[in-house]
Amino acid sequence: QESTNHPTLLQAFLDLKRQLSGFRSEFDLDPNLFLLPFLDVIRSEVVTGPVTGLALTAVNKFLAYGLLNEKQPNIASAVENLADAVTHAR
């Protein structure tokens, strides 16, 4: 029921799950791939505060676990996207 309210946001997570199944190393992974669904939730005006908080917590864990590092492709744009989303969190 809840997923029908935000099908685009949910679809992004389903696509992410499918794409991640083929990766062997996190260093080959564009961080935007796994960040963007969470950042879309953080930026969304239709998502409730608690759900936004969960997305922020997930992104914080990505940082704490070292899933973002300077060796990854497109890391600069990923950091820029992250900063933008957090700045515009609702």
Descriptive report:
- The protein has 90 residues and is an all-alpha fold.
- The protein has four helices and no strands.
- Helix 2 runs parallel beside helix 4.
- The chain is globular, with a radius of gyration of 13 Å.
Write the layout of secondary structure elements.
Elements: H1 7-20, H2 31-43, H3 49-64, H4 75-87
> In one word, what is the shape?
globular
**How many beta-strand segments?**
0
The chain-level mean pLDDT equals: 85
**Unreliable residue stretches:** none
Sheet-strand content, in percent, reads under 5%
SSE arrangement, N to C: HHHH
| Class by SSE composition | mainly alpha
Number of helices: 4
> Helix content range of the residues, please?
55-70%
Instruction: Note the main sheet.
Output: none
Rg: 13 Å
Distance between the termini: 23 Å
Defining key terms:
mainly alpha; 0% strand; 62% helix; 90 residues; single chain
What's the gist of this structure?
This protein has 90 residues and is mainly alpha-helical. The protein is built from four helices and no strands. The chain is globular, with a radius of gyration of 13 Å.
